[in-house]
Write a structure and sequence with these properties.
about 475 residues, five-stranded antiparallel beta sheet
């Protein structure tokens, strides 16, 4: 590209290559100064230095960014040489220009990639730190990000997420032109990252948008990680609260040994410390042999293996306290993953109290049966809602001709044995008693199994538990 200007800087000649690169016609260029090609990237001092050089008679050489007629920038390697007349005086200036736009774009791209790489490296290093407040972290991000922009002296930035907004200096006055992108957490918009300029700057690079897109992606992943960490902490806190607050003994173990237990485990087994507990195998917390004759060590290992294979195992067991006292327990083994390893949670419930209560109930039931069988009257119990007979003594066969087993296997046998003429009255009386739970009696005729008749007096009452709820009629 060649052009010639006079001493005042007006163009007097341009070649076809310059017209093609600049986008201007010969008529638009001749008679105009070179400032028509000038971009806004240079201060006045830049071209003042050029004029000083060439007017002194020296050659001036620089790489210059010019602007196409339609605004697109292009780069040239420019050389300006003074032309002298026969008297040795400068009469014109000859300018040679070589289009270096492709090279400058490559250099700029490489330079921006290096800046982007350094920026992201520093930001990722800070994201990995745990000693920074959110305000301090965002300020470090701004420092690195703005420094990587093409015009760091003019840029400002903002990060917004979680209902919080963090801004760099001058952000409020720099929002005329902006690059922005959303911060996604689990594929949902959680915030936004913006970089702003107070005025439209030349050569706004796509790499800048790529940089903030990449940074927004990093911030989204960081927030996802923080959310996951917080959820893990909350879950661990909940687990620990349940773990320590349980009234059952809870132990954690691998296939080889225990590695944690709650305080209730120490209380139930009578041990002083976790160290004492963790040093023991499950079989050491049991008598040598279980009631079914199995060796406790062998049986315990089988139960543990079954829980690992099936995910859980529930069974009754006899445990032994440190003082040698044996006690019955319900045991639930549950397998789960903890920190990438398969472990078991063993929940042991001391059921000594329940077993004693169960035994007492059995003994009382036996006493009740012995007593009722010695009486000459029919004694029965029935469900208070369905009135199905749940117990009747053997005297019923003498009176009704039906065995106790027949009464229990045919829930409505009592209704069928009432004489047809008395049945409506008796059922009405029973239904009213059921509604009011009032004790009473009713006299009526029955039909025995052999179809003979007898008169009976049925006295009934409603048994209630400690809470006042009816549990049976008798």
């Amino acid at each position: 590209m060649i052009s010639i200007t006079d001493l005042s800087g007006c163009i007097v000649f341009v070649n076809d290559q310059l017209r093609k690169i600049s986008g201007y016609s010969k008529e638009e260029l001749v008679g105009r100064r070179h400032r028509i090609l000038k971009s806004s990237s240079y201060p006045d001092e830049f071209f003042e230095e050029m004029w000083t050089t060439v007017l002194r008679g020296d050659t001036w050489h620089r790489e210059v960014c010019n602007r196409h007629k339609h605004g697109k920038p292009y780069w040239v390697d420019a050389t300006v040489v003074p032309i002298k007349d026969n008297s040795g005086q400068i009469s014109h200036f000859l300018s040679f220009r070589v289009d270096i736009t492709a090279r400058k774009q490559t250099e700029t791209r490489l330079r921006e990639q290096l800046k982007e790489s350094a920026c992201l490296h520093e930001i990722r290093r800070n994201l990995a730190r745990d000693d920074l407040s959110m305000v301090a972290l965002c300020q470090l991000i701004f420092d690195s990000l703005i420094a990587a922009m093409q015009y760091p002296d003019y840029a400002a930035a903002m990060i917004e997420f979680g209902g919080q907004r963090f801004t760099s200096e001058y952000f409020e006055t720099a929002r005329t032109h902006r690059l922005c992108t959303n911060i996604l957490v689990n594929d949902k918009i959680a915030g936004q990252l913006q970089v702003c300029y107070p005025e439209d700057r030349a050569f706004s690079l796509p790499q800048e948008q790529n940089l903030i897109d990449t940074l927004a992606e990093d911030l989204g992943k960081w927030l996802e990680h923080k959310q996951t960490e917080r959820m893990h902490r909350e879950n661990e806190d909940k687990f620990r609260s349940i773990f320590e607050g349980s009234n059952d003994a809870i132990m954690l173990l691998t296939e080889q040994a225990f590695f944690d237990c709650n305080m209730r485990a120490l209380e139930i087994f009578g041990l002083a410390s976790k160290q004492d507990f963790l040093a023991m195998h499950p079989a050491q917390l049991s008598p040598p042999v279980q009631p079914d004759g199995q060796d406790s060590l062998t049986a315990a290992n089988k139960k543990i293996m079954a829980a690992f294979e099936q995910g859980y195992e529930r069974f009754d067991w006899i445990h032994r306290r440190k003082n040698g006292e044996d006690f019955p327990a319900e045991v639930l083994l549950s397998a789960f993953n903890l920190h990438g390893k398969r472990v078991l949670q063993a929940t042991v419930r001391d059921v000594s109290k329940y077993k004693r209560t169960e035994q007492a109930l059995l003994e009382n039931e036996e006493k009740f049966r012995d007593l009722t069988e010695s009486l000459s009257e029919v004694i029965y119990r029935a469900d208070p809602h369905t009135l199905f007979v749940t117990y009747v003594n053997s005297v019923v066969e003498t009176l009704f001709g039906y065995t106790a087993q027949e009464w229990l296997s045919e829930p409505m046998l009592w209704e069928r044995t009432i004489h047809p003429e008395d049945r409506p009255r008796v059922i009405e009386a029973v239904m009213e008693a059921q509604r009011t739970t009032a004790n009473g009696q009713v006299e009526y005729r029955i039909l025995r199994k052999d179809q003979t008749q007898r008169w009976v007096l049925n006295r009934y009452s409603w048994e209630k538990n400690a809470q006042g709820v009816v549990v049976c009629t008798q």
